[in-house]
Design goal:
Blueprint lengths: L10 H29 L7 H8 L8 E6 L5 E6 L7 H9 L7 E4 L7 H12 L7 E6 L5 E6 L3 H5 L7 H15 L1 H7 E6 L6 E2 L3 H14 L16 E4 L14 E6 L2 H7 L16 E8 L12 H12 L5 E9 L2 E8 L2 H14 L6 E5 L9 E2 L10 H4 L1
Parallel strand pairs: 2-3, 5-6
Antiparallel strand pairs: 1-2, 4-5, 4-7, 8-9, 9-11, 10-12, 10-13, 11-12, 13-14
Helix pairs in contact: 4-6, 6-7, 10-11
């Protein structure tokens, strides 16, 4: 189901899901007196079972958490956690939330004060990380790595402690509690623990990380990618794809080039991708996927280079974006793009690509993890692509 770029053919299924969302909010609104009583220990009932019955009827991948509201009262967080492709659905759910006095709704777990964060870690993992220090280090892909150092000499000297899965999990929870889930998903890289090292107290970690992010953002290009083409240098990659029934994402690539190597590496890593890490101009980074098994139409484009040239000729003068790379795979060809406005650029690209007789199985897909289930067809009768979320 696509929410950012909806398709009329999905209208009936979308209306059914919207009806379930509205039914959820009606049930929630009716239950708020009991929720208030539960949080005051005036009534006992099975809240998890009730949430499974009502919220998870929308999608089983949705997670939830209650807490104190920032303005008083209560807050409810509805989050997809690691299922980032559900972010557009969560946005739709929260956009349809009723206005209820004493209630706030959020799509991410919020950052907590250090004292509360330590309690959260203890409650969720059973691990005490009080007294730890942390060090933040910026990466060229716009993320920040965090390294924790244990609080006691005994922990520092115990090599097995560093490999403790419970500790590693606790430090991920600590990072989320201290920084918030949105920052964890979009700007945090590796999280590790070392036996020795200097750092700041956990109380200062959030400000330390935000300072690193601000410095990274200040280094981003001062102009959009489509203004940089004349000065761009290009990096070539050779890869060894594995055999697959189909190829979700770009798994069949064996050769690729790019004018943005840090962006390319991030888009091909296992970590979540966010366009905001690579542009201060609101660009969306995405790619065309063309099924090479169908071949190009007679009288149309001869190869990927002609596709790229035609797209740049249409997009760049209009200020809509440009080609930033591309590649050839076992089955598919790819054209990587930086677009200023996806809808307007798509209208232009459809015209160019249809006149160039690209295969019916040609789609625009997205690098952003939060858009992992979104796609736009070049031809109206194109079947759905095989998405990374489908492979999961």
């Amino acid at each position: 189901m696509r929410w950012k770029f909806p398709d009329p053919k999905e209208a009936a299924a979308r209306e059914q899901l919207l009806a379930r969302i509205d039914a959820w909010w009606q049930a929630f609104a009716a239950q708020t007196p009991r929720l208030n009583a539960l949080f005051l220990n005036q009534e006992q009932w099975d809240l998890p079972a009730w949430m499974r019955e009502h919220l998870e009827s929308i999608h089983p991948g949705l997670m939830w958490e209650y807490g104190a509201g920032l303005k008083g009262g209560h807050r409810l967080i509805i989050t997809p956690e690691s299922s980032h492709y559900l972010c557009p659905l969560v946005e739709v759910i929260l956009a349809r939330a009723p206005v209820l006095p004493g209630w706030e709704f959020y799509p991410w777990r919020l950052p907590e004060a250090a004292s509360m964060a330590l309690q959260v870690v203890q409650a969720r993992t059973g691990v005490d990380v009080s007294g730890y220090q942390a060090r933040a280090a910026a990466n060229e892909d716009g993320t920040v790595d965090i390294t924790y150092t244990p609080r006691s000499l005994l922990s520092r000297l115990n090599p097995f402690r560093q490999r403790d899965e419970a500790l590693n999990g606790a430090l991920i929870v600590a990072t989320e509690a201290l920084l918030g889930e949105e920052l964890l998903n979009t700007r945090i890289g590796a999280i590790s623990v070392e036996s020795r090292g200097d750092g700041v107290p956990l109380e200062a970690l959030a400000s330390e990380v935000r300072a690193r992010i601000l410095a990274l953002d200040e280094k981003l290009p001062s102009s959009p990618f489509h203004t940089q083409l004349d000065e761009a240098s290009w990096t070539l990659y050779e890869l060894k794809p594995t055999q697959h029934e189909d190829y979700p994402g770009r798994l069949d690539l064996f050769v690729a080039n790019t004018m943005a190597p840090a962006l390319w590496a991030s888009a091909h890593s296992v970590r979540p991708f966010s366009s905001r890490r690579f542009s201060r101009h609101g660009e969306t980074f995405c790619y065309l996927k063309l099924d090479g098994s169908e071949g190009l139409g007679e009288g149309g484009f001869k190869d990927r280079a002609e596709v790229e040239d035609a797209l740049n000729e249409a997009l760049v003068p209009a200020g809509l974006g440009c080609v930033i790379g591309g590649g050839t795979g076992v089955r598919y060809s790819y054209v990587d793009l930086a677009l200023m406005n996806v809808e307007r650029a798509m209208s232009v690209m459809r015209d160019v690509l249809q006149r160039g007789k690209v295969p019916r199985r040609t789609w625009l897909l997205f690098f952003d993890s939060a858009l992992g289930a979104e796609w736009l067809p070049i031809w109206e009768d194109a079947p759905p692509p095989f998405l990374p979320a489908d492979a999961d």
